[in-house]
Amino acid sequence: MYKMYRLLRNLLNFSTTFVIYQYQTKYDMDKVVILGRVSTDKQDYQRQVNELQNYCNIVGWEVVNIFVNKVSGAKSIEDRAELQQMIEFIKKNDISRVVCLEVSRLGRNTLESLKVIQILNEHKVSLFIKNYNLETLDADGKPNPITSLITTILLEIASMERQTIRERMQSGQRQYIERCRKNGIKMGRVEGYRKSDNNYKDEYSKEITLLKRGLSLRNIQSITGTSINTLRKIKEKFIQSN
Fold it and tell me: Which of 73, 94, 141, 183 is the 20 to 30 A CA-CA neighbour of 203?
């Protein structure tokens, strides 16, 4: 997997730079938005934002908005709040391009990611992928066929990587369970353990706030990444009883 990825990167390094270089001078003062994403609450998207803002300053693009979220890239467009907000913003404002750090930030689901690109194309908004210097629209505002091919390949690689990671995790879990059973080790939560209300409030303070504002469970899941079942428990504990 890694060798194939590295080979693809080497092959495309020259061609992508050549394809995009001719467009950078034309859009010197374009208005752009930044799109960032991380998969878990433990990760921080600020590094992505800082790197993209610095790049935009260098090339002379005006950053007018930033859309970021902590959510799995495998989710659909409808389940990703930052994408919905970005699309609505683009429809109402004169935006030239969306800037993201790498194609996997758009999503790890190839079909869903291509849907986003299609929506941007329909509104004459180019997607700029910084780590490969790729633009999805050419100088005339038409879809760039070379970029479309490269982007699809990169999305497929990201999807394959995600599948490989999942399979490795599942394999490791199965092996761990088998070892525990052979050695008579009891698994799972300690018997009699129950998370206190204070622990719930500390761990899920953001979710409780959003529930009190009346947001739907689906929207809160998109924003926080917390499962629907957990949100139902929180709602029953702290919202419906009040």
Answer: 73
Give the span between the Cα atoms of 124 and 137, in whole angstroms. Answer: 8
The number of angstroms, rounded, from the C-alpha of 117 to the middle of its chain's C-alpha atoms is 14
Residues 121 and 136: beta-carbon distance below 8 Å: yes
> pLDDT, tens digit, for every residue of 163-208?
787 788 888 888 888 888 888 777 666 555 566 777 778 888 888 8
For residue 45, give the DSSP letter: S
Other CB atoms within 10 Å distance of the CB of residue 41: 12
Residue 130 in tokens:
């910084």
Q: Does domain 2-158 have CATH number 3.40.50.1390?
A: yes
Please report, rounded to a whole number, the percentage of residues in the chain having pLDDT higher than 70. 76
Residues 6 or more apart whose Cβ sits within 8 Å of residue 191: none
Contacts of 53 (CB under 8 A, 6+ apart): 34, 63
**Cα separations in angstroms, 143 against 11, 22, 121, 147, 181:** 21, 15, 7, 8, 56
DSSP assignments along 11-25, one per residue: HHHHHHHHHHHHHHT
Rounded CA separation 116/77 (Å): 7
